[in-house]
Amino acid sequence: MPEIGPQPQAEEAIAAVRTLLSWMGDDPERPALRDTPSRVAESLRELTAGSRTDVAAILAEGAFEADQDQMVLVSGLKFHSLCEHHLLPFFGQAHIAYLPQGRLVGLSKLARAVAAFSRRLQVQERMTEEIAQALDAALGPRGVGVVVEAEHLCMSMRGVGQPGHRTVTVAMTGRYRTDPGLRTELLGLIRRQDP
Fold first, then answer.
1. What pTM, to 2 d.p., does this model score?
2. Long-range contacts of 153-157 (CB under 8 A, 24+ apart)
3. Exposure class string for 9-34: b at 16+ Cβ within 10 A, else e
C-alpha cells in the first residue's frame, strides 16, 4: 500500500523500545535482546501502515461503471489490528456487502480497504464504521452492510482473561439500515459462511 504522510525517525522508535525493555526489568543489551528494539520498531511500523494509506484512493482506483443492481457480498476477509488502548492485537474477519447503483469496485479493493483500516491503532467499532463509510462515499450505492467479528487479546491475555470470545460489530447504511428483510437476508448469508 502506498504510504502518505511523514516518516518518523527509526532511531527514536528503537530508543523507545530499548527504554521499555529496561522498564520491564530486562537488559536490552543482553545478546537475545540486542536486535529486539529495531525488530519491534520495524514491526510496529508495518502493523500501522494503514494510518499512512489513502483508502479513498484505493477504492476510487478500483471503481467502475456497471449496469448491476444486485447485492455484492465478500465474506470472510481476514484481518489483524492493534487495539489502541493496550497495543495488543485483535483479529478476525470482515464481511462486506453493498447494493450497487451504477458503480462497482474490484473485489480485491475491498480486501485492501479492510487491510488499510485494520493496519492502524484501532477499535473494532470504529473500524467497522470506517469501512462502511468509505465504501458508501466511493460508490454511492443504495446501501452498505459491514459485519466484523474478532477476538481481542486485550481480553484474552490480560484483564478478565477470556480467550476464545468473539466480538461482533455491524455498520449499515441506506437500504440495509432501513429494510429489515434485506438486513436479515444479508446476516443469513454471512451466517452460512461460518465454518
1. 0.90
2. 153/83, 153/88, 153/89, 153/90, 154/83, 154/85, 154/86, 154/88, 154/90, 157/88
3. eeeebbeebbeebeeeeeebeeeeee
- CA 80 – CA 83 distance, rounded (Å): 10
For 19-65, write each residue's pLDDT tens digit.
999 999 999 999 999 999 999 999 999 999 999 999 999 999 999 99
Angle at 140 between CA 139 and CA 143, to 5 degrees: 105
- Domain that residue 95 falls in: 63-193
Same domain as 37, residue 107: no
Domain identity same for 120 and 87: yes
Residue 176: which CATH number?
3.30.1130.10
